Amino acid sequence: MSNTPMAASPLTRAVLEIDEYVSGLGWDQAARLFALVDTARLRAQEPSLAAQLGLEDEPETAGLTPIEQDEVPSGKPLDEFLATIAWPDAVVGCALTVERLMLPPSAEAQVPSDLDEARLAEWVARHPERQEVRMTVAVLRDGSRESALRLREKDSPTEVLTGPDLVPGLADALAATFAD
Asked: Given strand 131-140, what is the order of strands in its sheet?
């Protein structure tokens, strides 16, 4: 993609490519799940699929191709859904994009301790310092992780924060989809 730095690792490039793709769809989107496959292996083993994805002219560098999966069910908690996933051997990693409301660390001391999950979500939604954020988190079978965070109020390709430990709980949940 145009805003993905070529010097970045293949995993970082895949996360940024997914972030750019989803950002083109606008906000208020459902969660999206992606399988990550080795691009060279995909071209060699599935040339017609690679052609369908426009990969036949890609350089022979080690890269990852994100392949969007079926819709993530909206009525089921995300952690329960992820616990049902098992990937075939051809999938070297996976990524998930999800939108959430977040509070800055300065607001953590204000959180009432007696709220259940539903009431806590309502409290956060009404908090004046809340931020809407899109998180794209990816993991590989080898344990590598990468994340991209985009705030709705700073929705620009140059305002995307990346790093391996930005959303550790979600990365752990995705990594568990590769557990034996």
From this structure: 64-68, 32-38, 91-102, 131-140, 145-151, 161-163
